[in-house]
Amino acid sequence: DDPDVDPETMSCIEGCYSSSQKVLFLHLRGMFDTHSLVKQYQHLKEEMNEKGYLSVWAELKHSYARALLFLFSISHVLIVNHPSPCLDISYIHLFRALDTVRLKLQPSVSEALSKITGVSSDWATNGRFCSPRVLWFFENCPPAFRRQIASKLGVDWKKEDLKKVGHDLEDQIYSILRKSRVITNVSTNSLFAIPPNKEYVFMLTEPDPTQDWIPYLVNSMVDLCRNPNLSMEQNHCSYGYESLSDPHRQTVEQRFQAFLQQHIDQAFSPNGFEDNTGRHAHLINPFETPPLGVLLEAANVLHRLMVSGTPPASLHSLLDTDVRFSEARCSKVLPLATATYQENLPANYTREYHLKKVSHALGVFGEYARGPLVESYIEQLQKECERHWKSGRQMCEVLSMTGNPCTKPLHKGDGGELPPHQLEASRMDLPIMEHCSGVRYISACDCGKRQGPREDPFSARAANCDFYQLLGAECGCKNLDRITFPVFQPSTQDYRAAQLFSGLTGSGGRKDNAHTSNKELGTQPCNTQGLSLAYVSVQSGGENSDMLLGESNAGPSHQRASATLLTESHQIVIQVSDTDEDSSKEKSLVRQPSTTEYLPGMLHTESP
User: Fold this and answer.
1) pTM for the model
2) Which of 27, 103, 317, 420 is deepest in the core (most CB within 10 A)?
3) Do 348 and 250 fall within a single domain?
């Protein structure tokens, strides 16, 4: 037996029909069963990482409650299985939520049942053929009545004592259900009924050895060693695991069958269940035992309506108390956090100041908000703060040449362009105005004679041209002689920065370095002076003269060197040339600016 639940409904209802008793037994398997929970663990783990524990737990309770609502609408008797001999108070909230949703769904259920052939008018009107009875099955009894513990303590109890404990537990259950208004004097008006004159609590005096048989086997062996005169039936011990549980299982099944059979027999009686109490005890409640075919057809219709169909929103709201508490708490704190953000705001402020205020508002919100809806309300708070900031309070934030931001509201620049972080299609209607940081400097004109205040510049032209032109016109130094430097204008698409220095060092590499730089700059070597230094023999020879001779024979470019200092002979040799040759060399000083390479680091408004 390897049962599995439906991944959509998170539940599975198993059925077994006893033809001899004419009874249909239904068994609900849900995510609260250990076996089903272990099989769906990986899926639930992924959901918990995505949604959180409380949200996943609420979904599990919701799916399980829908299956229970179906069973309460299609059953005569329901058995609640609980491990400990006490009533779980969480059942109270579950039962009240199911009863509320049952009443809200009653018109839809009545309409669906009225279309089925064989369904009586009372059944269709009430949405069920009777108010079911609920029986309680506790897998353990109080510790003093457990056989193993009692034998160790030397306590001898009788069946009458255990029955008295069961009756006390019944009174406790009835009192709790009655005070919480889960059950009333008229069973038809309640989700279920409690039999007034029959036992409805069944307790086991020993745990089932098939569930945890290793401790049971050890304890049985210890008891047998302590008292070897005990019979085999008293120890429930035999050879083999299967034979170990047979006597215990047979005894429990017989007791439970007798306990359940009395309620089944009363259901087949002419009057059915008579569970009204007080002054309404004489009222006859609607009660039917429909044929199996009609019952199955009605069960299919109700299952599609309550379990497989669209879930009722009211059930989810009633069961998910954590979400309701979180919603009430967060909705109360959200206006307080929003007011904290809007407190003492300037007319316009930067994104950094906006994020600082949002962080402060989130701190106030996180101090009081609780529950699974905190994350969604945090997103709502952030969106509200963002909307408030962008509704006319957003600062331009364009940085000036000195690093100061523009303090005006968000706008377009002089050319109609937006800053890179504000390129949004929805902001194309922004006004056009000049940037202003509110910072002013005192600068002098070109000659330094006159000083004047200048606005913090936001462009290279405003920083280096416009101000000096205006101040120069007032001073008069605008008319002074000026040297105009050539501006790099590329003639090709593959222009690049010039490489001014090479990696060569030393005296021997000085000439090659200059030659390499000229080659990289794309220019030919030319004369830079009218006079050039060359070799004139003054001494008879020697190493220095040979070296100079070698340099003079190297080529015309070396013969046109500027000067050669002879460190060892302390003599300067100068070659005197003709006048015509000097004038031609002076003309060659005029160089055209490069159109393929520009000087790195010397940028201007027209630099590429």
Assistant:
1) 0.58
2) 317
3) no
